[in-house]
Write a structure and sequence with these properties.
The chain is α+β, with helices and mostly antiparallel strands. The protein folds into 3 domains: 77 residues, no CATH class; 37 residues; 162 residues, Glutaredoxin (3-Layer(aba) Sandwich). Helix 4 crosses helix 7. It is elongated. It starts with a strand and ends with a helix.
Length: 299
């Protein structure tokens, strides 16, 4: 027999007291509600058998079964809801591709802006150097007076030497001619004008220079002038030169700085190539890089 008091199944012989209590409770059951907690229900079972007063609290049982019923209802609703279909792979790839494109664009703009800032800072620093900053007045191989202003707007590659140089000057001018050809054949960069500046005003007349530079490249321009003009131009480019002693044939060697200068269209110093061991292609690559950087800054 199930004993409603003990909430257990017991033989009837062992539940006599429970039976009496249960029988008496049927006649005197009173349900009250707790005033302080509307969710708590108490059932007071008052019995007079053997002066027992039994108090049953069903609040926990009520809450448990109430929550269980809610969970069962939710589970039923979820079981009736159709499963969500996964996102198609094509749509996923489109989203990932769009994110990568946006990220790459932002990275490129940030990197390009940073690089442009560095290039501008370098150009500003180089423009403050006094290499080729001062004006000079010379005579070209056609006998025409020229100055720094006549070469503005052009990329220049300058070399200082003299026409009676036995070996070094011819080698450097041949290298310069090869560089000019490489630059002119590259249509992605502007042309380059080669200049040969003499450091021997006594022997290097316009006619002598014209004949000399024509042996290396048709574009090459030879410049000479008075001793004072050549001294001023050499000082502007920080080039050292000194004539040696004359021999019995009245011939002499001029010791001078071996260097090529690259000047931009604004007439500012950009770079120099002073080592004879530097390969022609390396100089060409350096010139091309400087031209491209200049185009990024000034269009």
């Amino acid at each position: 027999m199930f004993c409603s008091f003990c909430l257990k199944c017991r033989p009837f012989s062992q539940c006599k007291i429970g039976e009496k209590i249960y029988s008496a409770s049927l006649a005197a059951t009173k349900v009250t509600q707790d005033k302080h907690s509307p969710l708590t229900h108490q059932r007071l079972l008052y019995t007079h058998s053997h002066n027992y007063i039994v108090k049953r609290n069903f609040s926990k049982s009520y809450t448990y079964f109430n929550d269980t019923s809610k969970n069962d209802t939710t589970a039923g609703n979820n079981s009736e809801r159709p499963p969500e279909e996964p996102m198609p792979i094509k749509k996923r790839l489109l989203i990932v591709g769009a994110v990568l494109i946006i990220w790459g664009g932002v990275y490129y703009l940030a990197t390009a802006k940073k690089k442009k800032k560095r290039l501008l800072e370098r150009e500003t620093q180089l423009s403050k150097t006094d290499i080729g900053a001062e004006d000079y007045n010379l005579i070209d191989h056609n006998g025409k007076a020229v100055s720094k202003k006549d070469f503005l707007g052009k990329w220049l590659l300058l070399y200082f030497g003299f026409t009676h140089c036995p070996d070094i000057c011819p080698e450097e001018l041949e290298k310069m001619a090869d560089i000019i050809d490489l630059v002119d054949n590259d249509k992605s960069i502007p042309d380059l004008l080669p200049l040969f500046l003499s450091v021997d005003p006594e022997r290097d007349t316009p006619a002598a220079i014209k004949e000399y530079v024509s042996e290396f490249h048709p574009k090459m321009v030879g410049l000479t002038g008075t001793p004072e003009d050549i001294k001023q131009a050499s000082k502007a480019f920080r080039v050292y030169y000194s004539a040696g002693p004359k021999d019995e044939d009245n011939d002499y060697i001029v010791d001078h700085t071996i260097v090529m200068y690259l000047m931009n269209p604004k007439g500012n110093f950009v770079d120099y190539y002073g080592s004879r061991s530097v390969a022609t292609n390396d100089i060409y690559s350096g010139i091309k890089r400087n031209m491209q950087n200049y185009a990024r800054l000034h269009g």
